Structures are given as C-alpha cells and as structure tokens.
Amino acid sequence: MQSSRRNEMCTKCGIDSEKLYNCSRCKSAVTRYCGRKCQEEHWPAHKPICTPLKQDEVWGIKIPPNASGRLLGIGGSRGENDPGRLFEHVLIKADHHVFSMRGELCPVTQLVGLPLLVYSEAFATGVGLDANNQATVYLRIEPENGLAPLHWQMNGPGTCIVVRQDRRPLTRQAIEAMWQFTAKLIDGFGYARDSDCGWAPVQSVMTPASWQIFSRDYYQQQREKGRVGFDKFWEPL
Ligand SMILES: [Zn+2]
Ligand SMILES: [Zn+2]
C-alpha cells in the first residue's frame, strides 16, 4: 500500500483520516483505505476494477440487452435477480463514442448531480435494434414526464454503455442505486398508481439532496442484506 496525504474518507469504513493508502496494485486515485483490514474486507468489491488504468481509459458500465428493469426485482442473490449480472464493469477508451455526440446525457442524472452519459451501439449502427434494455431506458427518462425519448421507446437500444460525464469510475453499486432511483421516480409519475411511492410532485425530488438521501439509504439496505460493495456512500460512488 502507498501512503496518500489527502484528507479523505476510507472507501470501506468511511473514516475521515489524514493518512489513507491507495491499493498498490491498481494505484486507483479514488479507492483509499485507512489500513490493511479495510483493504482486505473491501477486496471482493474492489477486485473487478483492480486494474492499473492507462491514461486513456475510464471505468464504465455495460448493460446487456433485455435487462428488464425493476421487473426483475432487486436483492436476490442469483440468476436473473442478481443485479451484478445486470451491470458489468468495462474499461472504456477516452475517445469512445459515448463521450462524443453519440453519447446521450441522461437528464435526471444531471439534475441530481451525477451526470451519466449513455451510448447505444444499436442506435449508432442500426444493428441489433430489437433488443430491449429497460434498465437503460429508465436511466434515460426525461424529467418532465418520466418517459424516455421516442427513439428509446420505439426501438430496443440493445447493449448500452454508461459512463460518468466527469470520467471518474462508475461503479455497479452507483448505477444500481441510480436505476432504482429512476424506477421510483417513474412510480411517482403515476404509471404504477397502485404503488404509491409517496413522492409528489416528482420534479421536486430531482435534486442532489434527494438523490443523496435515497442512495445513502439504498446502500445501507444493501449492506444489511450482506451485499458487497455497498460499504460506504458517495466517494467514490
Ligand atoms: Zn477503513
Ligand atoms: Zn486495486
């Protein structure tokens, strides 16, 4: 482990410490630990992204087609209910289309302070347009009506790539929480009137404060279920 002098929080336990250590293998600038114990306990979550990044690489998320959104439910530990299968870590080149005009900014994520860009290979190439990707459609909703733009509804976007606009690593845990947040917003728009989400008017909760409360609670709920990677909220997401 290498010493870091920045006064930030341990990725695992959240302790605020002047002396934190980077992972010596990947030297990630955003994963830091207060000591060996926290590093070891965090390893199952960190392992998938423990790779020394090249200058032109960014950690993003791949969402395979037929990711059928909240209908799958969350919290299961195997098979289709495993959100780990819904969101895959992938290394993205800095000149990937997602960062160009072909990447679309998800407006709700921008409103809440975690701007995400999404890219559909099928929309870009016209190949594979039939495959549904409901999880990505949720992320892409417009704040005015809770619906994705027409081209997202008319054609299945197939496999999608999602990255943080600020090019910091996007983790599975963060995108899962954001997806659940958008699912709750969609409930709030009244498309599922039976399940009152208790949020009205919906636009008033599209704020960084609401997102932070939601995601902090969500991380805590997942921790209580014993899921790895939800150790601490916010930095790094
Ligand atoms: Zn710690
Ligand atoms: Zn590492």
TrEMBL record:
Keywords carried by this UniProt record: Metal-binding, Zinc, Zinc-finger
Superkingdom of source: Eukaryota
Coiled-coil spans in chain: none
Pfam families: zf-MYND
Protein name as catalogued: Ectomycorrhiza-upregulated zf-MYND domain-containing protein
GO molecular function: zinc ion binding
Organism listed in the record: Heliocybe sulcata
Domain annotation MYND-type: ranges: 10-50
Highest classification ranks of the organism: Eukaryota, Fungi, Dikarya, Basidiomycota, Agaricomycotina
Keyword Repeat included in the entry's annotation: no
